[in-house]
Write a structure and sequence with these properties.
204 residues, two-stranded antiparallel sheet, three-stranded antiparallel β-sheet, alpha+beta
């Protein structure tokens, strides 16, 4: 093979390498939107899970304190969920029986406040059945024991709704909490996500 043939072959391989590289880049570029969608879906799922933990902590607060942590429809100061209940708290009263006495150790409802997948706090509100933050009775059939032997409601009292929302990736809250609480079904706007925990039975 003479020098001219080698030069031509080298140019051929160089052109082939360029075409192959462009093809790989095109495939990667085409897959980026799909990959971004998958990542967003995973982050939204994680945010919904954390929102559910916040909603459950709010419900546990109501069970133990006999009232909601905020007035009807008002934003909940979620930092109260990391506080230790006062000495006169009603911790475990729903599970208290002669065979299962009230556990004396007071702990916060959450050790660390869950945040959404973008590191931002959730926005939450409670919509009570009678529009107040008064104590509400819960049927024994609606409670389950936890690992400590206490009993907590599985869902809010009938007619009561707990709404916990993440502003999503853009950090702009677009959903209306009142609409989420009172609409026929929870529809978050934009890239917002979260949980709507509704009580079963009359008034819900």
């Amino acid at each position: 093979m003479d020098r001219q043939d080698r030069t031509a072959l080298k140019k051929t391989f160089t052109s082939f390498d360029v075409i192959l590289g462009l093809g790989v880049l095109a495939v990667v570029a085409a897959g980026l939107p799909w990959l971004g969608q998958q990542l967003d879906m995973a982050k939204n799922a994680r945010s919904r899970d954390h929102a559910g933990r916040v909603a459950q902590a709010i419900l546990d607060y109501h069970t133990e304190m006999g009232q909601w942590p905020a007035a009807h429809g008002k934003p909940v100061d979620l930092s109260v969920l990391t506080a230790v209940p006062p000495p006169a708290h009603t911790l475990g009263t729903m599970a208290a029986t002669p065979e299962s006495p009230i556990e004396p150790d007071a702990r916060p409802w959450v050790e660390e406040l869950p945040v959404d997948s973008w590191g931002r706090p959730f926005v939450a509100a409670v919509y009570d059945a009678d529009g107040q933050s008064s104590p509400t009775s819960v049927s024994p059939s609606d409670i389950i024991p936890n690992t400590a032997g206490r009993a907590y409601p599985m869902s809010p009292p009938p007619g009561t709704t707990i709404v916990v929302v993440s502003a999503g990736r853009d950090g702009i809250l677009q959903s209306n909490l009142d609409a989420l609480a009172h609409g026929p079904e929870a529809q978050f706007r934009g890239d917002d996500t979260g949980q709507v925990l509704q009580g079963r039975g009359a008034g819900s």
